[in-house]
Amino acid sequence: MLVMLSACTGENAQHDPTLHNPHHTLSTQLGGHSFHPPNTTPDVFLATSKNAEQEIQTRSDVCRALTAEPTLTITLMFGLKRPHGVDITPHEWQDFVETTITPRFPSGLSVLPVEGQWQDRVTGKIGQEPSRFVLIAAPPSTPHLAQKLTDIRSSYQRRFDQQAVGVTITPSCSAF
Fold first, then answer.
1. Domains of the chain, with CATH numbers?
2. Quick check: 167 and 150 in contact, CB under 8 A?
3. Would you say which domain of life the source belongs to (predicted)?
4. Is the per-residue pLDDT at 25 higher than 60?
5. Contact residues for 59 (Cβ-Cβ < 8 A; gap 6+)
6. pLDDT of 56 above 60
């Protein structure tokens, strides 16, 4: 279900459709609709999925048709530069994958090269760096899943002097 809340501020936003309508257009493009809830000013709107239950049912039908199982899609985000700009070498990265990630997820994973952007927590400076996304599809019932992810993230932070390793987890279904 898509739920968006936006505040179009300023007097012009309430009267100038070129400033106000892009939010409504975006919500429609994302599969929702916009409206002004009762007793609110026109500068706040809510966009919700028109047919959230139908969307969930369709997703379930597709998963069943593919004989896909419920999974969590996990994305881990690793920067490849140490503080002060020293690169993490391809050999160091591969060793980390082989000794730290693979033993925890031996059934498979994917590594994607990406260009990352990061704001330093101490200095506030924004920088770019080569990065890696590691994608893992794991059943929600994977034993000790949270601990495995915590171990990977903290190990990378310690080993390569990183402030953070990003993680996102999304419910999904997978068939292999």
1. 69-174 (3.30.70.120)
2. no
3. Bacteria
4. no
5. 173
6. yes
